[in-house]
Design goal:
heterodimer, A: mainly alpha, MetI-like fold, about 75% helix, globular, disordered N terminus, B: mainly alpha, two-stranded antiparallel ribbon, two-stranded antiparallel sheet
Chain lengths: ~280, ~300
């Protein structure tokens, strides 16, 4: 019976559409990377050709390395992302444990309160966040970004992690309690290791928007020493808009780390989306 | 004292405190603060309560109201294009990917999701270059299929810039509906599909009559995610067209409008209170959308779930 769904014509058509869309998805990325290795004339004369021996040129990368403080920007982005991620995972897991493990008054209400942030974007609070940061002297510090991103990441992290923690066996935790373990030991030693796959999923979901964000670095930390790589690239591109070599090289440099990380973690990410996101 | 009272379980508080404190201090209080700021105005550098005056300015003063309605209209278009293009393509790709005998499906999945993980800055600029008439990529490509006459500098024309940018955004985010629908399709039990096949419902008919009704909740979720994301968008427009959302504000959406009101642009000075008023409007729009989804759409869709 199921033969009808897998006739050759149908399957060729399916592959045709998927290949077409894959080309649409990858082409802009490839064309930028390919052209970043070419000389200026070749970029314009034959934009669709790969670099050859005569048109190969790294002048764009040289300009980027000389002009932009990209290493510092990378470092800032890295610090902000890793530290925010750490707090989101730690605090998120703790709160998720409290919500899923203990029955106390206001439990549901607290869960709803924390889930508000999944739907309401933190960006709408920008005006008051900036005032808060000005008042506490945190403008132009990475701390400001870490605080905002931690708050931004917590709601979804708590939501996903508490779903997973409900699945951890009660017998295990009760056995621990009988052995006299404290609630903290149960959480850190027994439960956390068991929800590690869910933590990885949350990590990927939290990381991408933080690394790519332009709005908060632009508003809270635009100074030279605190620029993130997204903001740095934005300003660099605006400034060098006529230097195509440099622009293409900067774009490629911004694409590559994300692309490498994505390919390394894509299985994790896709498993995360396909297992937990739709309930 | 009758029953022995249970000791206060301090650990619950300890577990909850860090998350609740940060979330409340950095997200909820500023959100409330922003809504509150919308009711104040700086008179000689002193914040004075003015009730709904800022909203009266926003809707009554032509300097503000034309900008606001323009941004709102563009934003609605932005959303409509996403719903009409992004989500159907996502559903189609997911339907193709989920057929059990498809080879290379992991490769397609990974490749089509690539644009989604890139930042707006990269996407905005890369497309700006590709669509630029200076660099012949887009005209060259159209030439290959004999359609060169169709080319025009889309991003530079008032009539097409918003559509072009919406499609760029669709290109970037089509991976999200694809993945969520894909997950929903995989979770349909095999027995349901087998039963359909025994009844002779296969191929397209099977998709429309069996699978589509079963994935409606997932389509509901991607619709509300698209809605919230679109009415909160900023980065792509800012990267591709700058804070002025040119040409002639034709790509201005609420996010860029808020940014200009808050920080000022050209001759106008930034006004946090007007910024707060616009943020309040965005909050209300998103709130209405979310409530509509939670109370009207989701409750009706639930009966389809297993």
């Amino acid at each position: 019976m199921s033969k009808a769904t897998a006739s050759p014509a149908r399957s060729i058509a399916a592959h045709g559409i998927l290949i077409l869309y894959t080309i649409i998805a990858l082409f802009p990325v490839l064309i930028v990377i390919v052209n970043s290795f070419k000389s200026r004339q070749a970029i314009f004369r034959e934009p669709l050709m790969p670099p050859t021996a005569s048109t190969f040129d790294l002048i764009g990368y040289v300009t980027v390395m000389k002009q932009g403080d990209f290493l510092l920007y990378f470092q800032n982005s890295f610090v902000v992302t890793v530290v925010s991620l750490f707090f989101v995972l730690l605090f998120g897991a703790m709160a998720a444990f409290a919500l899923s493990e203990y029955r106390f008054r206001g439990n549901t209400l607290m869960g709803l309160y924390l889930a508000l942030g999944i739907m309401i974007p933190i960006r709408l609070a920008t005006v008051a966040i900036l005032q808060l940061m000005v008042a506490s002297g945190l403008v132009n510090t990475l701390t400001a970004l870490v605080l905002v991103y931690t708050a931004q990441g917590l709601p979804l992290a708590i939501f996903i992690l508490s779903e997973f923690m409900k699945g951890v066996s009660d017998d295990l935790k009760n056995a621990g309690r009988i052995d006299g373990l404290s609630e903290y030991t149960i959480f850190f030693r027994l439960v956390l290791p068991l929800v590690r796959p869910a933590m990885a999923t949350v990590a990927v979901f939290t990381m991408i928007p933080i690394w790519n964000d332009l709005w908060f670095p632009l508003i809270l930390a635009p100074s030279e020493s605190t620029k993130t790589v997204t903001l740095g690239a934005q300003l660099f591109l605006g400034q060098y808009v006529t230097n195509w070599n440099a622009v293409l090289a900067a774009l490629s440099l911004a694409i590559l780390p994300v692309l490498i990380l994505y390919i390394a973690f894509s299985r994790q990410l896709i498993r995360g989306i396909t297992s937990g996101a739709v309930k | 004292m009758t029953a022995p009272k249970r000791a206060i379980r301090w650990h619950i508080g300890v577990f909850l405190a860090p998350a609740v404190l940060i979330y409340t201090a950095i997200m909820i209080l500023p959100l409330v603060g922003t809504l509150q700021l919308a009711l104040f105005k700086a008179v000689e550098n002193v914040q004075t309560f003015v009730g709904l005056d800022n909203f009266r300015t926003l809707f009554g003063d032509p300097n503000w109201s034309t900008g606001f309605w323009n941004a709102l209209r563009n934003n609605v278009w932005f959303f409509v294009i996403h719903m009409l293009v992004q989500n159907p393509i996502g559903v189609m790709l997911a339907a193709l990917l989920s057929s059990p005998k498809l080879r290379f499906s992991a490769f397609y999945r990974t490749a089509i999701f690539v644009p989604t993980v890139l930042s707006f800055v990269i996407v905005g600029f890369a497309w700006k270059l590709i669509l630029s008439p200076l660099w012949g990529v887009a005209p060259n490509l159209l030439d290959l299929v004999g359609l060169k006459f169709l080319f025009s500098p889309w991003l530079g024309k008032e009539s097409s810039a918003l559509i072009a940018l919406s499609l760029v955004s669709v290109w970037q985010f089509v991976g999200i509906p694809m993945m969520l629908i894909y997950a929903a399709l995989l979770s349909i039990p095999d027995e349901v599909i087998e039963a359909a096949e025994c009844d002779g419902v296969t191929g397209m008919a099977q998709f429309w009559k069996i699978k589509l009704p079963l994935i409606l909740p997932a389509i509901g979720i991607i619709s509300i995610l698209t809605f919230v994301g679109n009415f909160n968008a900023f980065d792509l427009i800012y990267t591709a067209q700058g804070a002025l959302a040119g040409p002639n504000y034709s790509t201005d959406i609420l996010g860029t409008f808020l940014y200009r009101a808050f920080f000022g642009f050209q001759l106008q000075v930034g006004d946090p209170n007007m910024g707060a008023a616009i943020a309040t409007m965005m909050f209300l729009i998103i709130l209405v959308g979310v409530c509509f989804y939670l109370f009207l759409v989701q409750t009706r869709l639930r009966r389809y779930q297993f």
